[in-house]
Each structure stands twice: as structure tokens, then as C-alpha cells.
Write a structure and sequence with these properties.
The chain has eight helices and four strands. By secondary structure, it is of the alpha+beta class. It has two domains: 9-103, no CATH class; 105-172, no CATH class. A hairpin with a 2-residue loop joins strand 1 (13-15) and strand 2. It is elongated. The protein starts with 12 loop residues before the first strand and ends in a 5-residue tail after the last helix.
Length: 177
């Protein structure tokens, strides 16, 4: 999105620590000939969807007078760009879609790697302790209901420390709370 430079810093309004923009600024960024009117047409056609992402604020005009202006939050800006039909809006949507896909794939890859490492760690621990799948499920159940680690250890002929490590691995893997 940085290539497009659609949004200029001077167009951003911070309202209650929320990024906002006026219809005029959004319309200019999206390449409309009549920026304010074009955005308000989109707004009125999609008022139900956009109302929760906009508000009226008092802004000072160039001549120093304060007037009420509708501003749109970041979410509103995204929705308007999705509803807009300009070349800049199409490019913005394509870049936003690519960015979101990239972030999702990065997060998925990170989770798979973390899950794989945890899985390998658990499997190695279970093999070393000579525990089978049924034993593992039983230990998981007993831990989840709060059974004493020493008692679990005695049942499966392993130490209470081993049970603590298994519990810690279960928790880090998201298997137990």
C-alpha cells in the first residue's frame, strides 16, 4: 500500500485516539472527481453498514469557524474503499487483500511451526516414558479434573516431575488450560 500513497498524513484526524478521515479526504485518496459528494453517495447507499464506523465531530475550517463534519474510522475507510469504483480503489483493495493474505499465511506458518515443535517435544517425552496413546489421553483427563500429579505418576509408573513436565507441555500446546 505504501506504493500508492493514497492517504496523506495531513488528512488523518485523531479523534479519541482513533484514526479518522473526512469524506473529502477519502474521496480525494480514492481518485473521485467530486470527492465529498461521491463518498456521501456511497455512505447514504450503505448507511446501515457504515453508521457504526462514522461520527460527527466539530472541526475548524480555514476561516477559523467550527463546523460539524462526518468522519469515518479506519474500518469505515476500508469499507468505503471496498464499495468505491475507481482505479485507485481497485488498486487499494488488491494491495489490502495481498497484505491480509500475507499476514494470515505468516501467522499460519508460525502456528504450524510452533505446533510441530510442541508435538515433536511431546512425542519424544511420551516415547521416553513409554506411554501409549491411551495413557496420554488418561493423563490429560486426570490433569484436567485436577487429580494429584503424584497419584498420576504412581498410576503410570512415572515420577511426579514427569507429570508436571507433561502438564506444562500440554498447557503450552494449548491442550490444557
Amino acid at each position: 500500500m505504501s506504493e500508492l500513497n493514497l492517504i496523506k498524513e495531513k488528512d488523518i484526524i485523531m479523534y479519541d485516539n482513533i484514526i479518522c478521515m473526512t469524506a473529502e479526504s477519502i474521496g480525494r485518496a480514492l481518485g473521485y472527481a467530486a470527492p465529498k459528494d461521491s463518498i456521501f453517495k456511497i455512505y447514504h447507499r450503505n448507511k446501515e453498514e457504515l453508521d457504526s464506523f462514522s461520527t460527527m465531530v466539530k472541526l475548524s475550517t480555514v476561516d477559523g469557524k467550527a463546523r460539524e463534519v462526518r468522519v469515518f474510522t479506519e474500518e469505515g475507510i476500508y469499507i468505503i474503499s471496498m464499495l468505491a469504483n475507481t482505479d485507485k480503489a481497485k488498486k487499494f483493495r488488491a494491495e489490502l487483500a495481498n497484505l491480509l493474505k500475507q499476514k494470515r499465511l505468516e501467522a499460519l506458518k508460525k502456528e504450524k511451526i510452533a505446533g510441530f515443535e510442541i508435538s515433536e517435544k511431546l512425542n519424544k517425552r511420551f516415547r521416553n516414558l513409554k506411554l501409549d496413546t491411551a495413557d496420554i489421553e488418561s493423563i490429560k483427563l486426570l490433569l484436567s479434573i485436577g487429580f494429584a500429579k503424584k497419584g498420576i505418576g504412581k498410576m503410570f509408573n512415572i515420577s511426579a516431575d514427569s507429570v508436571r513436565r507433561i502438564e506444562k507441555d500440554f498447557i503450552s500446546a494449548g491442550i490444557l488450560n
